[in-house]
């Protein structure tokens, strides 16, 4: 698939808005009684009015109103209609049949700089991130939920028609592609997690696509970027947005580093984040390296700095999970509701040759958010030279991340991870390991008694 530029995504989203007459109707302060037109940087007359919120209204050095997208790219300049009317196709460099061709404005920089906000009327700039969920009751691992009363009707359910391995194999080498990011954001919003969003078409993305198609009965054309952009526009907006780093973001608290040895972990006050970038990457479901790559030269430690992040939009996954299926072969976890409908799927690291996951059916016993971790070499795996019981403090970089969903088979559970970019690509110590954000989402939908079935 030809490489598409980020500005092309923005143009595709704008082009899907309702068409309007050539004269600007001044819906929110563009023109003067409709006697103006909007001229694109290529010299064309813009034949629609961008939706409110999709652009920023500013003024250029000549005092003319201009429309800027949320990444600082010029969309259009307001001009008097009697001066420019009829000049819409004058620029011979623009080729309407190939808007991504060299020389057209859509072939600009792959990742334009993050907006600074300087001089813009930024009332509509998205600066707020996805808010922290404060409704979670944090519990110790030893505090069980009340006994569940619901019945599990799915003791033998199998994944329907999905291959044991993804249909294709992929490499994550080469530059990240914003059209793949858009696909990942769409899947993430739908509740079919692609893992850490990184702009690459890896196996976690392919597995999410296959699960989404199984649920919906639709075929997702991954090469039809315009169609994916339209889906995004209808459910949360463009795949990228801006976020302003707060004083709390910069302050942390952060830890200098996370040691490998469990005895050293046990001596630390917490298993917290090591940097602002690590925290923000998890907040926006992103690979940390990708977050840095799309914000070159940015100092993430300075409050007030505006950065570019993915737009998580409105998350569709939700409801009450009645059955979980852990597919070892696909390295994927499926969540079903009481009607047997698939409501979410997550890439997972499930067991290893040395510490295999259990087979058959177990149940959820309890759920803990922000758990500590007790290492017992007689019950758990052997880590380094440690031969004593160790209590490791809580935190996102702890061995089980930010969530522990305990299972009825002792020492086994579904949990988060300190290394989200490795999920679905590596093995675990017998448990089901998800990204911290996926584990948190799942934990909000389960209760004790929910069936968890392992299939090979």
From TrEMBL:
Residues 88-176 are annotated as: Disordered. Keywords: Cell shape, Cell wall biogenesis/degradation, Lipoprotein, Peptidoglycan synthesis, Signal, Transferase. The keyword Cell wall biogenesis/degradation applies. Gene3D superfamilies: L,D-transpeptidase catalytic domain-like, PGBD-like superfamily/PGBD. Residues 146-174 have a biased composition (Polar residues). The active site is at 415 (proton donor/acceptor), 431 (nucleophile). Pathway: Cell wall biogenesis; peptidoglycan biosynthesis. The keyword Cell wall biogenesis/degradation applies. InterPro entries: LD-transpeptidase, LD_TPept_cat_dom, Peptidoglycan-bd-like, PGBD-like_sf, PGBDSf, Transpep_catalytic_dom. Coiled coil: none annotated. Residues 1-19 form the signal peptide. Residues 322-455 form the L,D-TPase catalytic domain. Belongs to the YkuD family. This is Lipoprotein-anchoring transpeptidase ErfK/SrfK.
